[in-house]
Design goal:
- With 52 residues, the chain is mainly beta.
- 0% of the residues lie in helices and 31% in strands.
- The chain is built from no helices and 3 strands.
- It has a 3-stranded antiparallel beta sheet, with no helix packed on it.
- Strand 1 and strand 2 form a beta hairpin.
- It is globular, with a radius of gyration of 13 Å.
């Protein structure tokens, strides 16, 4: 089973995410992801509500 390596480019924080783990990436956050091994993942995109 594989995993997903998430890197926050602002803080250099790295996280290795395996099922059933989750990561929330806020809009505009510079980041990088890399697959490690074979895996199936789901990516949902959300947007922030407009500023009032």
């Amino acid at each position: 089973m594989g995993s997903l390596r998430f890197v926050n480019l602002e803080t250099s924080e790295e996280r290795l995410i395996s099922a059933p783990g989750l990561v929330t990436i806020h809009p505009g956050l510079p980041h990088r992801v890399a697959l490690e091994g074979w895996l199936r993942c789901r990516i949902d995109f959300y947007r922030e509500p407009p500023a009032e």
